[in-house]
Amino acid sequence: MAKNVRVKFTKMQGAGNDFVVIDTTRQPLRLEPETIRRLAHRTFGVGFDQLLFIEPARAPGTDFYYRIFNADGGEVNQCGNGARCFMRYVHDKGLSGKSAIRVETGSGVIEPQLEKDGRVTVAMGPPEFEPAKIPFVADRRALTYALEVGGRSIDIGAVSVGNPHAVQVVPDVEAAPVLTEGPLIEQHPRFPQRVNAGYMQIDGRRRIRLRVFERGSGETLACGTGACAAVVVGMARGVLDSPVEVQTHGGKLEIAWQGEGQAVKMTGPAETVYEGEIIL
Predict the structure, then answer these.
(1) pTM for this entry
(2) Is 228 a catalytic residue?
(3) Cα–Cα distance list, 93 to 8, 23, 87, 275 (Å)
(4) Which of 147, 124, 271 is nearest to 197 (CA)?
(5) Is 79 an annotated catalytic residue?
(6) In this predicted model, what pLDDT tens digit does every residue of 209-263 receive, in sequence order?
(7) Which one is catalytic: 223, 233, 246, 264?
């Protein structure tokens, strides 16, 4: 990228998970990881959990291509809260007049839909429980796995919702060791592509509280795929019933799932915070 390029961006948030969104449908843009890290810095840059690129469609039958970069500069395949902001952005900017679109990601096609109440529902695709496809090192598929972390054994559920998640049930999510244990789980050798570490407190069969330490970003106020992962793990264990209200530090999400082979659906807010321009 040439020096001193002016780039317009939109700052958005979904349940407190915040993003910088850049439209590259007309003008391609390539940013080095170092530039993304600087842009993500909340003092020296704009500050965000993830950077979202809106690109022209690549596959027939899709409307756009969606790229996601974490605050550490690494590219990932999926971001649920970002997908809702993606839908809000293309609608508000007039890039699409549809109330529902098909968006290709690195892990498949998702289908965001703008609801009449202003919230956005995203069909995230079916969850993947097979260890090799998460990816997670295990001899066989199971509901729970013992994971050695920091000298002790914890029980997790492992699943991919476009990106890998390790979910554990805790009695009190506010007392959970998210900031100390989360980084150890994120970097655990049994997750060769790293993992998002979720901590779920079950308040009832249709309500949970959730905190997530996201790979490449640290703890965020909300994690859309983390909410999906927690709910499907809880439903697979028989302790939750769809739909489930997920309370995060940034707001509420609603997750619905009809069972194995079916897409997980997530509904929640998506809002523009401000418009800006930065020289890179």
Answers:
(1) 0.91
(2) no
(3) 13, 10, 10, 12
(4) 147
(5) yes
(6) 999 999 999 999 999 999 999 999 999 999 999 999 999 999 999 999 999 999 9
(7) 223
